[in-house]
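Example 3.
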Amino acid sequence: MIAHLDIDAFFAAVELHRHPEHRRKPLVVGGDPAGRGVVATASYAARRFGIHSAMSCAEARRRCPDAVFITPDIGLYRQWSARVWEVLGQWADATEVVGLDEGYLAVGDADPEARAAELQQIVRSRMRLSCSLGVSRAKVVAKVASDHRKPGGITVVPAGHEAEFLAPLPLRALPGIGPRTEERLRAAGLRHIGDLAALDETHELVSGAWGVQIHARARGIDPRPVETEPSERLSVSAERTFSEDIADRRELERRGSEMAARVSERLVERARAASTVTVKMRFPDFCTITRSETLGAPTADAAEIWAVAARLLEGALAERPEPLRLLGVGVSGFDRPRQLPLFGRAGRPSWIAE
DNA sequence: TCTGGGGTCCTAAGCCTC
DNA sequence: TCTGGAGGCTTAGGACCC
């Protein structure tokens, strides 16, 4: 059996350990409520005001002017997360960490209820954190189940009852169905996961690789194992939403070249070079476009990455000469470098040709 | 007054090669 | 030499996730 463990309001819970004086107050971890930030995590006290993840902080403050707002400290959450999964790793046959606050554990077939309670107790006693667990034969069902009784709940779906468990739940409860897909499915008259599961395999909505997969998952079929090896990263990027839209080209170039330098640093840290450069631009109306170019040879050099990105930015702004709300620089298409940089000059790894 | 940042995966069109 | 299909690559965008 596979358990999905999800730490309840993780960022907020860590902040409450650091700031016990806020324990009784609604707490929001996220951006500046006076700026363009959004809510990363809201404590359960804040959720009672209708505040939830991804809501703009300005809206959150409107809903609860007395809430305490805290800027996320990702480094701290990483440390906590690493400790949680280190502890859990000693108690499960295998663990797969997904993000900072959740993951899967292989827990064997004997008394899953007791195993889940044991894991929950370990997180509570060793880390003083509350978590919810879902246990099932199928990964996707375990994930949905962990969300079923939050916070602090345990839901075990016995083998053979996966489809039955999923059937009455709303479409959005199934991972992979976001607002757009829900809208499409609802337009076709579907309301619950069971409606999707009941579609004939030949139905147009469940055609294509994605359709076949979501159809299988709706029926509780998910053969993915617990993956203990973290997958290789496929892209690296840096982006920034500006506090005010920027029209000035020189300012955009300054910000963009900084992002290229950050991306380059991260490539060098990982001893990687990339062959595709992408720039992302978001205009004041929130319309977002990307432009990318694939180079003849992979690079990790900040100046080279920025030279390509700047050209793409220039081209896009020639087509649409408007201020930018967001600018991003990213790279993908990784290649192992020919050799590791032993004595490379700062900002210019040694494997880049002079 | 809305709407982050860093990712992955899928699809589709256009182009190229075999 | 022309045609057409298959399939890969590049590019762009969309959707989704934590």
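Chain A has a mean pLDDT of 88. The first strand of chain A starts at residue 2 and ends at 7.
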